Amino acid sequence: MGPRSAATAAAPAATRGSVAFGGSRLLRIPALPRCRCRRAAAAAATPLAFRENEVKPDLNVGVKEQAEAFRIGQAQRLTRRGWAVLDKKGTLTPWSHTPGELGPRQVDIRVTHNGLCHTDLHMRDDDWGLSKFPFIPGHEVVGEVVAVGESVDSMRPGDRVGVGWIADSCRRCLACLRGDENVCEKGYTGLIVEGNHGGFQEICRVRSDFVYSIPDGLGSASAAPLLCAGVTVYAPLRRHLTRPGARVGVLGVGGLGHLALQFANKMGGDVTALDISPDKEEESRQLGAHSFRTWGSATGAEEGLQGHFDVILNCASANIPTGQLLSLLKNDGTLVQVGIPGGGATMSVPLQDLVFGQKKVAGTIVGGRADMQEMLDFAGVHGVRPLVELMPLSEVNEGMKRVAEGKARYRVVLISDWQ
């Protein structure tokens, strides 16, 4: 089945005696009776007696607070349904797990939308040797907070939030202290690495430090791809596009490149799109490119572009010779390698051009907490929006096939459709 648009129906309101989890009624409990604990305690000369193993009520807590504690306790114990990869290169199948107690710095998020990233396919196939099976993919996650740990004060149930690729870091090294957890000296923890579970499930549990507020003007389907693809191109542009009018080349107008065009334009760059497909020219210009060149060995794309760019973002998945790209840079220009070609690709750098032109080659990997929240706010204000295809989560395998075959234009977003 092909992709289709989907709308999320308004969740029914909770009825009397029900507990509402983020707008959806997940369980029903009897209405709690009026508490007479204080009256009984005042009348009794000795402490109240309780049966062995019975939980004693807190006499200083009212009925509403006890109901909230009960609700959170139930949220901690519920079995979570998800779509999991059970073994290497396997098809995603329905699978359940129980997460256990909610940690003091953790939050539970009822997932509504997931961006589908090519990294999910790499993790499914264990291309990087980081996967531990079974696990639930998904690292562009948007949803609603339904429970928070006792030490979380930055968010509350009902907040609309997002989670990206990074789920934790040491939080103590110099990189982490300045908000660059993506280059943590101890190494960061990926949301779906080493058996951790991501967003292709009903309720996703994550550390609150790496949960981000979604601006009101940014829809959930638009926000999801920004949580990985968006920050991946925003962060290097933020570092290397240092002045208005700087000439920026974006090579590869796909899931990453179509967002890079928008961000570079809104940051004031003079933007050129370079892509192997000439049919992407009109769309590239609509997204923010001021000019377009068809890229390829026989197209003459480089003609007139020698020494032209201040910055080039290589978002292509193909392994393009570095010398070819360096020749397009001005002296003191920067080539940023964003895409990671498969097959153990390597880079060969012509040293004479690098040294005498004082040119730079840089890598980039997603972004830290500071870049992430700034990027979301920037996108909300400046109207940066991914072009997405909407599919139900139950069709995740068909979505992965579209991404693998390069048919998605440009990001697939999966909408939760649990029954």
What does this structure look like?
The structure is a single chain. With 419 residues, this protein is of the alpha/beta class. Helices cover 25% and strands 24% of the residues. It has two domains: 167 residues, Quinone Oxidoreductase, Chain A, domain 1 (Alpha-Beta Complex), CATH 3.90.180.10; 135 residues, Rossmann fold. It has eleven helices and 19 strands. The strands form five sheets. Strands 5, 6, 7, 10, 11, 18 and 19 form a seven-stranded mixed beta sheet that branches. Strands 14-13-12-15-16-17 form a six-stranded parallel beta sheet, covered by helices on one side. A two-stranded antiparallel ribbon has the order 1-2. Helix 5 packs across helix 10. The N terminus is likely disordered. Keywords: Metal-binding, NADP, Oxidoreductase, Zinc. Its cofactor is Zn(2+).
- The level 1 CATH classification of the largest domain is Alpha Beta
Give the CATH H-level superfamily of the largest domain.
Medium-chain alcohol dehydrogenases, catalytic domain
Oligomer designation? single chain
**Any idea what the CATH architecture of the largest domain is?**
Alpha-Beta Complex
**Count of DSSP E strands?**
19
Mean pLDDT value:
86
Helix content percent band: 25-40%
Give the ordered list of helices and strands: EEHHEEEHEEEHEEEHEHEHEEHEHEHEHE
What's the gyration radius in Å?
A: 25 Å
Termini separation (Å)? Answer: 19 Å
Number of helices: 11
Low-pLDDT parts are 1-57
Helix/strand structural class: alpha/beta
Strand content: 15-25%
Which descriptor suits the 3D outline?
globular
CATH fold label of the largest domain: Quinone Oxidoreductase, Chain A, domain 1
Biggest sheet record: 7 strands, mixed
Question: What is the domain tally?
Answer: 2
